[in-house]
UniProtKB/TrEMBL annotation:
CDD domains: Trans_IPPS_HH. It comes from the Eukaryota. It comes from Chlamydomonas reinhardtii (Chlamydomonas smithii). It catalyses: 2 (2E,6E)-farnesyl diphosphate + NADH + H(+) = squalene + 2 diphosphate + NAD(+); 2 (2E,6E)-farnesyl diphosphate + NADPH + H(+) = squalene + 2 diphosphate + NADP(+). GO terms for cellular component: endoplasmic reticulum membrane. The chain crosses the membrane at residues 442-458. One of its GO terms (molecular function) is squalene synthase [NAD(P)H] activity. Catalyzes the condensation of 2 farnesyl pyrophosphate (FPP) moieties to form squalene. Its cofactor is Mg(2+). Belongs to the phytoene/squalene synthase family. It holds the Pfam family SQS_PSY. NCBIfam families: squal_synth (TIGR01559). This is Squalene synthase. Keywords: Magnesium, Membrane, Metal-binding, Transferase, Transmembrane, Transmembrane helix.
Length: 461
């Protein structure tokens, strides 16, 4: 059964999946301007889920964030290409912020979609130079700071947790800071958002650490040489070498190290909440909140899960679709965080080895986060009572259930055999319902179950 069985066991994810599919199709419709079309086409190629949320932002912020993302992907491609000589790579990283002003700039590096991005990077430069000057200034400054930070870690091992935080700041915390400055520059958010560098940094660190944890196996197997950012101060407590964790014989130690890494990531969560509580534009909120919720869900799925060392552990696609559909305000944010924190707490209580060294701190951080989210959700509900259900929705549900119920009632002869069991207006058509009695029963049962499920999903949405 596989994916079908997964879908049938979570019927409330069917409609969100369909709507997310339609949103993804809409995101593939490119602008008429050929340069913008290239940028948004690349965005779809390298990050489809990101493309969906960015398309919901108003302009000029939407175009600026699209270009910001592609500029940083270009910088990241230079950093990631292990075929580039270090003597060439270091100065390129430090001057990449100058390249984005150089019309016609291209570079041969990267793989797959990223190779094409770098081969046509001059198109990105054209769109960058058409952005509002304040947006250009933000993108160039963050690119400069990130390039210098990446160069620092090209030949530097991540030893301490402080090193780990610093690396994640350079590659992701700065992204959060730059986005905050773009939100403020666009006028969609208060100017104070652009100055909240500490909170924005935590937003980036929470996302980046989730990716680093989830991608252990992919990164350790990277050719020609792995680039790993798990800090030695954490993994060194559990094995002589970080690569040891991919061996099945070391799975117990690997899982304990994994739990320690996830516990470290959880310390950023309160700051992420504090940041998102300041946002006022619903689309900016969704843009920020959806990745944070998905990071929390990914950590919950990875926690105490040895499959992290066998492949990539992901959330169900249907669950992702529900997050995209039901993340519109702080109440939704708190609800989702509580769900994933509860899943982690269940593992802590029922699955984790009691001798796991990080367990006490994990339990403490989960409990504190759950308490804070629960209190905030209670206050949110008090100040934002749900709207009363519309008469149109009630009529829709009543008619759907009545019609399918009447069909089921007659086909199964619950009112007795014959056309007399039908309403008088329908009796002339009884012969239609009497054909293929066995098939009619199966169809009526399936329809009744389907309508019940759809009504339940729509009323919960």
């Amino acid at each position: 059964m596989g994916k079908l069985g997964e879908l049938l066991s979570h019927p409330n994810e069917i409609m969100p999946l369909l709507r997310m599919y339609r949103a993804a199709k809409r995101a593939t419709k490119l602008p008429k301007d050929p340069d913008l079309a290239f940028c948004y086409g690349m965005l779809n190629d390298v990050s489809r889920s990101f493309a969906i949320v960015i398309q919901q932002l108003p302009n000029p912020l939407r175009d600026s964030i699209c270009v910001f993302y592609l500029v940083l992907r270009g910088l990241d491609t230079v950093e990631d290409d292990m075929a580039l000589d270090v003597d060439f790579k270091l100065p390129e990283l430090r001057r990449f912020h100058e390249r984005i002003y150089d019309r016609g700039f291209t570079m041969e590096c990267g793989y797959n979609h990223y190779k094409r991005l770098m081969a046509q990077f001059g198109v990105v430069v054209n769109v960058f130079l058409a952005l509002p000057p304040p947006h250009q200034a933000v993108i160039a400054d963050i690119t400069r700071r990130m390039g210098y930070g990446m160069a620092e870690f090209i030949e530097k091992e991540v030893v301490t947790v402080a090193d780990y935080d610093k690396y994640c700041h350079y590659v992701a915390g700065l992204v959060g800071i730059g986005l905050s400055q773009l939100f403020a520059a666009s006028g969609l958010e208060a100017n104070s958002i652009g100055t909240e560098e500490d909170l924005a940094n935590h937003m980036g660190l929470f996302l980046q650490k989730t990716n680093i944890i989830r991608d252990y196996l992919e990164d350790i197997l990277e050719e020609p040489a792995p680039r790993m950012f798990w800090p030695r101060d954490i993994w060194g407590k559990y094995a002589p070498a970080l690569a040891d964790f991919k061996e099945p014989a070391n799975r117990g130690a690997a899982v304990r190290c994994l739990n320690d890494m996830i516990t470290d990531a959880l310390r950023h969560l309160p700051y992420c909440l504090a940041y998102m509580e300041q946002l006022r534009h619903v689309m900016v909120f969704r843009f920020c909140a959806i990745p944070q919720i998905m990071a929390a869900g990914t950590l919950a799925a990875c926690y105490n899960n040895g499959r992290v060392f066998e492949g990539v552990v992901k959330m169900r696609r249907g669950e992702t679709a529900r997050i995209f559909e039901t993340c519109n305000d702080l109440g939704d944010l708190y609800t989702w965080f509580l769900q994933f924190l509860a899943a982690m707490e269940a593992k802590v209580s029922n699955e984790v080895d009691p001798t796991d060294p990080s367990l006490p701190l994990t339990r403490q951080r989960i409990a504190e986060a759950r308490k804070a989210c629960a209190a905030k959700l209670t206050e949110w509900k008090r100040t934002h009572p749900p709207p009363s259900e519309s008469g149109a929705a009630l009529t829709r549900d009543f008619l759907a259930l009545s019609i399918t119920g009447a069909y089921f009632y007659y086909v199964w002869q619950l009112g007795g055999p014959g056309s007399e069991a039908l309403p008088e207006l329908l009796r002339p058509y009884a012969w239609v319902l009497e054909q293929q009695a066995g098939l009619q029963k199966a169809v009526s049962l399936a329809l009744l179950v389907l309508v019940f499920l759809l009504v339940a999903v729509l009323r919960r949405a």
